[in-house]
Amino acid sequence: MNGVFDLGGTDGVGPVVVPDEEPVFRADWEKSVFPMFALCFRAGFFGVDEFRHGIEHIDPAVYLKSPYYEHWVHTVEYHGARTGKLDLAELDRRTQYYLENPDAPLPEHEDDPELLAFINAVVPAGASAKRESDKPARFAVGDTVRVSRGAPVDHTRKARYIRGAVGEIVLAHGVFIYPDTAGNGRGECPEHVYTVRFDATELWGSEGAEPNESVYFDVWDPYIELVEAATKERTSA
Amino acid sequence: MSSHTRTPAEIAARVKALESMLIEKGIMTSQAVDRMVEIYENEVGPQLGAAVVAKAWVDPEFKTRLLADASEACAELGIGGLQGEDMVVVEDTDTVHNVIVCTLCSCYPWPVLGLPPNWYKDPQYRAAIVREPRKVLRESFGYSISDDVEIRVWDSSSEMRYWVLPPRPAGTEDLSEEELAQLVTRDSMIGVGPLAGASR
User: Fold this and answer.
1) Is B74 noted as a catalytic residue in this protein?
2) What positions does the domain Nitrile hydratase beta subunit occupy (chain A) (predicted)?
């Protein structure tokens, strides 16, 4: 979707501010939100792509100005409501209660060894989006390709600044979950992923580009069309 | 969808309310929260990436494996996992300087660098680094890259996670692997800063 979250190349958002030091978590509420990614994933709220798409639905003004982990609160709420796992009216009632009683305790509860075991297992193991597939790759390293202009209204990783641009495939990574289906609740439908190298002048024009710069962007197979096959490939074919 | 920007007190109350519901549903426990926080405050951080870099500096065969398949090579050192399942290491040279970004959200190689600093996740860096990398590096990070060095900006749009192998500095022949690792900064593996003790 063409949302403000798709920031690459946006001008006028101000300078990058880099503090000398900062803690990993800036407030206690950030510590509570961070584990919700893994725990609500486990509880079936979302996959990674849907998690991102929930963030993309945030009001643009809020997205740009809110603290990072507040984005995560929004996507947990969005998918909690969507899946029927979270009653937002009840959430509003409890929010009011904790606003008026900020030091009121959380509900008493027992430890759950399974949740602890899940955390200790998922952090070092992860959950790769790579998939086994005998699907042939339509493209090869060295091919010159163009990113299609198509502008999906729902979740995609085809950023606006690379649409229509021509570049060269420099890496082929194999087959991965396809965000344009998975992020929209339409299944994994895995596709080949490639890294495409774009000259900065291709993206920003000779007036807008800095000298001697290139951008490397990962695309899924359906995002691109062939402009010219790699010379080597053509000779061997 | 609300366009209301919450105050810190409102965010804290909202999160506590949400946490209370997730706890009652058995999805979340305070113990699981504390464990997750402990891992990313104390266990998983840029010291892990630094150890990988130092090993690549002293072991040419490991470096070859690291550049060929970073996830496999890091696994040799027991390093890997969430948000770094499929990693690619890109090497800086005399003619190429690499820098990473996620323009679409905040993707970052957690297993080797820990959780990203806030500026990496904020709109300003994500918007500008693909368009004016030299200016951003110079003005926000005090880090000047010569015009004759190509800047390659890696935008992490897929689940591949890119990070940077900086070159081993001259005059470090006598240092141990552990001492070398001390030179490797988080910023040098993002591509926005030099090694420790190096001039900008």
Assistant:
1) no
2) 128-225
Quick: pLDDT tens for A91-148: 999 999 999 999 999 999 999 999 999 999 999 999 999 999 999 999 999 999 999 9
Query: Could you give the count of Cα atoms lying within 13 Å of A14 in the half-sphere of its Cβ?
Result: 8
When scoring A32, A82, A178 by the number of chain B Cβ atoms within 10 A, the one with the most, hence best to mutate, is A32
What is the spatial distance between Cα B119 and Cα A76, in angstroms, rounded to a whole number?
23
Strand-pairing partners, residue A197, are A168, A216
Residue A17 falls inside a structural domain = no
- CATH number of residue A103's parent domain: 1.10.472.20
What's the CA gap between B175 and B166, in Å, rounded?
Answer: 17
Which residue positions of B form the known binding site? 102, 105-107
Task: Give the chain A residue nearest B125 (alpha carbons).
Answer: A16
Q: What is the pLDDT of residue B197?
A: 78
Q: Considering CB atoms only, which of A27, A32, A70 is closest to B33?
A: A32
- Structural domain spans, chain B: 8-42, 45-190
Q: Which residues of A touch B9 (CB under 8 A)?
A: 99, 102
- A36 and A99 housed in the same domain: yes
Which fold is adopted by the domain B45-190? Nitrile Hydratase; Chain A (3.90.330)
Place of tokens 């897929």: B158
Is A7 an 8 Å CB contact of chain B?
Answer: yes
* A14: in domain: no
pTM of the model: 0.96
Q: Which of B74, B107, B156, B188 is catalytic?
A: B107
A103: in domain: yes
At B13 the pLDDT is 98
Same domain, A57 and A89: yes
Residues A162 and A106 in one domain: no
Residue A137 in domain: no
Q: Give catalytic status of residue B102 as yes or no.
A: yes
The enclosing domain of A209 has a CATH number of 2.30.30.50
Token pair 């390659």 is found at B152
How many structural domains comprise chain A?
A: 2
Domain containing A212 equals 143-226
Residues 6+ apart with CB under 8 A from A206: none
Question: Cα distance from A57 to chain B (closest Cα, Å)?
Answer: 8
pLDDT digits (tens, 9 = 90+) for B33-90: 999 999 999 999 999 999 999 999 999 999 999 999 999 999 999 999 999 999 999 9
Task: Say if residue A198's pLDDT is above 80.
Answer: yes
Q: Is A116 close to B151, i.e. CB distance below 8 A?
A: no
Say how far apart CA B80 and CA A126 lie, in whole Å: 8
**Residue B22 and residue A79 in contact, taking contact as beta carbons nearer than 8 Å:** no
Q: Which of B29, B85, B136 lies nearest to residue A109, judging by beta carbons?
A: B29
Give me the mean pLDDT over the A43-70 stretch: 97
Which site among A6, A18, A88 would you substitute to test the B interface, given the most B Cβ atoms closer than 10 Å to its Cβ?
A18
Q: Do A120 and A36 reside in the same domain of the chain?
A: yes
Choosing from B20, B30, B71, B105, which is the catalytic residue?
Answer: B105
